[in-house]
Amino acid sequence: MIIVVHLLTASVYMKKQICITVIVCLSCLQFTNAQVVREKRSLDEYWKFHLGNASNPALDFNFGIENIYSKAGESGNTCINPTYNDSNWNQVNIPHDWAVSLPFEKSASFEMDSHGYKAIGPQHPENNIGWYRKSFTVAQKDSGNKFVLQFDGVYRECKVFINGHYLGSNFSGYMGFELDVTDYLQFRKPNVITVRVDASQFEGWFYEGAGIYRHVWLNKTNPIYIASNGIFVHTKQVGQNAVVSVETSVQNQNYNKGQVTVQSYIIDKTNKKVAFFPAASISLTVNEIKTIHSLSTITNPHLWNLENPYQYRLVSIVKTREKTIDSLVTRFGVRTITIDKDKGLFVNGKHIKIQGTCNHQDHAGVGSALPDALQYYRIKLLKEMGVNAYRTSHNPPTPELLDACDELGILVLDENRLLGSSQEIMGQFDRLILRDRNHPSVFMWSIANEEHALQWTDVATRIARTLVARQKVQDPTRTSTYAANMGGHKRIGILEAIPVRGFNYYVNDFDGYHTNNPDRPIMGTEMGSTVCTRGIYFKDTARGYVPDYDTTFPPWATTAERWWKLAADREWFMGGFVWTGFDYRGEPTPYTWPCINSHFGIMDMCGFPKNLYYYYQSWWTEKDVLHIYPHWNWKGKEGQPIEVACNSNADEVELFLNGKSLGKKTMPRNSHLSWMVQYQPGILKAIGWKKGRILETSVETTGEPYQVKVIPDRESIHADGKDVSIFNITVTDKQGREVPDAMNLLHFTVSGEARIIGVGNGDPSSHEADQYPNGNYQRSLFNGKCQVIVQSSHQKGMIHFEASGDGLIKATSKVKAE
């Protein structure tokens, strides 16, 4: 069986660029009578927030006491009332996660354990409800247009009101939703949105945050407009050309029928028009939606691939009587995905072994409320390691993450949250596919993950068949898998229905399954699960640390080296996704309290590499890699044996201690080297030989911490109130050598038009605060490192950052906001 996926797809711009980009592109049309009314307006800033209470209505602003549903707009004595005085509420910006700022609390409950011991969930009704209010105005001249509120993600179940009117509810903590507010807007006085968020019930078994943690938009269009997610663009390569198929759905929500013309064309990165689609005229009755199917050809197209993720832009225009009433720009790429049962995955005919990671969506300091730039930062770190694929475990991702994968060249396994075919669950699945099917990075859908209570049953077979069938309707260009924690060689339950067999672990069953099911493509949807603590080299059960070697793993898992050797040696095996790219809060395996986050990451929660990072980089990239560990600060262990390991893709490596050779060894492919070395202070040096080139690296015994060192991720950021700079901080001794085991407490200040929004250090057992609402930010180094995230304001100028510690020379750094 060969599954061929011809496509690629198109998406949304980085949100802060949308309105500007649309206007620039449309200016190319030079229509003298064009009136562009579509607008995507951010509503992220200047919200008011207050905790409610899940068990006491009197402490929940009378929600549950007052009758607010009997008459339209009657909001009673609650904060839903637009006249309610919220002046004493906290001001916050979206994205916002209120759980990350809650205290840690030791508990024996699974919910608290799995969610990182944050004081939220069934035991904490006082922290489970969050209320948000936002006031905004709409110009009188915009009356007559259509307005929709778009929430990209709210954790979790929420109810939305505007001007005292109930708009609707949303169940999913991960899938975005839209609410039409056209009839409720006021044009002569402010409008007030009120959102009640209930995070008392969890969807996962890992930290999920709480609140409006993704962007909020007010979308304005003409009443006759391109429907939400109403563009689907995909391609098929024919010889040296690409045939581009476009489906454009236009909706009429005017009060009478309309006659419109739809025109589309494609532009490249230089804004040159490279393809045109024939104009199509349609008549729409009231509330009718019609879809227009169009074809065009790009001659000698640039292909989207992992090395050069080239994207085109589709410009779609709706006109009536030669007047432009709507327009939309959709990015897409030209690429072909082929999945072969015998040879695995191909992108544009090139064989690709999946070198992927699974990831949850939280980061140190900010929880689940990641600024867009932090999404890009994390994808860049993965790409530098050699990662070429990302699994969105176990839920629909934020749109900006997919934008980052599109732009940087990372394949995405896009995962549904729940297995089900009810109206609610199927609706979430539909929204996922329709929202994401235009992204060139998305190469496959995952219908669910490890539904162990159901996956063996006939019910699961029927549900899976329903989901796969719906996927083919909404997106016939791709196929599906299921992340199965079930071994054996038979097709039972979900495995009867799923086109691509996904393995979560069970590495000993790869060969048997392939032998018994030769027509079924196979991939590793979840591999590895080695647990390591960055910079720790001995097991510490009291603090909950495990050694930073590829040696410790839970019963169901295996080492990085073992799974990758199996994958690399089997042509028919597509490769797999490591659990996980980054540590995440919750699931503190193998220890519980005082641990508050996982140890599974190849990088810690700040994105600081553990030693496994260099194992994967050795065999997943063509870079020259030579990395030895541990550090060489072992005062008191003189004469005792220390295991020294080397991750490298050199042909041979020789190790030296203080100039004396400890032996040269040949590096086995997809493996590592190790020596037992009696500790002596000094310099531990490795020399590698790779195809005639010489590589060198060393670790050195250092002095005491002396000076703070600060490295920002960029020299300049946008002065838009949303962009961030990530400051990574270390300390050095008097000779300028980084001190790898430093644990100093540091203090941080920022001046200029910016603010600190979070701090972290990657310590999986740290109970220090991630956020300090009243300022006075601080954080201890963990094995020599910590991180501070600074967000810009709307003012241009220099942002000055300072890090200091008792007895240390402080460090300053600056970033330009422009």
Descriptive notes:
- The protein is built from 9 helices and 45 strands.
- The strands form 10 sheets. An 8-stranded parallel beta barrel has the order 22-23-24-25-26-27-28-29, surrounded by 4 helices.
- The chain is mainly beta and 818 residues long.
- Helix 3 (372-385) packs across helix 4 (399-408) and helix 5 (423-436) runs parallel beside helix 6.
- Strand 7 (157-162) and strand 8 (165-170) form a beta hairpin.
Describe the largest sheet: 8 strands, parallel, barrel
Q: Whole-number radius of gyration?
A: 27 Å
Overall shape: it is: globular
Total strands:
45
Low-confidence parts: 1-34
Key features of this structure:
818 residues, 8-stranded parallel β-barrel, 6-stranded antiparallel beta sheet, 37% strand
Question: In brief, what are we looking at here?
Answer:
This protein is mostly beta strands and 818 residues long. α3 (372-385) packs across α4 and α5 (423-436) runs parallel beside α6 (458-474).
Write the layout of secondary structure elements.
Blueprint: E1 2-7, H1 18-27, E2 39-42, E3 47-51, E4 90-92, H2 110-114, E5 129-136, E6 146-151, E7 157-162, E8 165-170, E9 177-180, E10 191-198, E11 216-221, E12 224-238, E13 241-252, E14 258-267, E15 273-284, E16 289-299, E17 312-320, E18 323-332, E19 335-340, E20 344-347, E21 350-352, E22 354-359, H3 372-385, E23 389-392, H4 399-408, E24 411-415, H5 423-436, E25 442-449, H6 458-474, E26 480-484, E27 500-504, H7 510-516, E28 522-528, H8 560-568, E29 573-579, H9 612-620, E30 626-629, E31 641-648, E32 652-657, E33 660-666, E34 673-678, E35 683-690, E36 693-700, E37 707-712, E38 716-717, E39 724-732, E40 745-751, E41 754-760, E42 778-780, E43 786-792, E44 797-805, E45 811-817
Parallel strand pairs: 22-23, 22-29, 23-24, 24-25, 25-26, 26-27, 27-28, 28-29, 38-45
Antiparallel strand pairs: 1-19, 2-11, 3-4, 3-5, 5-10, 6-9, 6-11, 7-8, 7-10, 12-13, 13-16, 14-15, 14-17, 17-18, 19-20, 20-21, 30-31, 31-34, 32-33, 32-35, 35-36, 37-39, 39-43, 40-42, 40-44, 41-43, 44-45
